[in-house]
Design goal:
The protein has 102 residues and is an alpha+beta fold. Helices cover 30% and strands 30% of the residues. Strands 1-2-3 form a three-stranded antiparallel β-sheet.
């Protein structure tokens, strides 16, 4: 089964005076039908020079777009590849412990 990656916003930090969001806390989850893996991170944002979206009008899609845009395509792919590697390791472990005798 193919792996599904879900990016979600866990929390936002903002200035109360104007609603400027300066930090996004996000999660990325990978699920392949058998196993799942996840990551959590925080990302600082610069104040927009124009057209700031009012805080009350923000949606998960908008903020997730900010996070992915700030990271760039290569970093998003790197994060997802790391989660995929964790799933691959669960399916076919490269290390085990134990003794060969009973």
């Amino acid at each position: 089964m193919a792996t599904t990656f879900s990016w979600k916003i866990a929390n936002l930090e903002r200035e109360t005076a104007d609603g400027y969001v300066f930090t996004c806390h996000y999660t990325v989850n990978a699920e392949d039908g058998t196993y799942s893996s996840g990551a959590y991170g925080s990302l600082g944002l610069e104040r927009p020079s124009k057209n700031m979206i009012p805080f009350a009008e923000l949606t998960p899609e908008i903020v997730t777009g900010w996070v992915k845009d700030k990271f760039g395509v290569e970093k998003v792919a790197e994060i997802e590849a790391a989660l995929q590697a964790q799933l691959d390791e669960l399916h076919a472990p490269s290390r085990q412990s134990g003794v060969p005798w009973a």
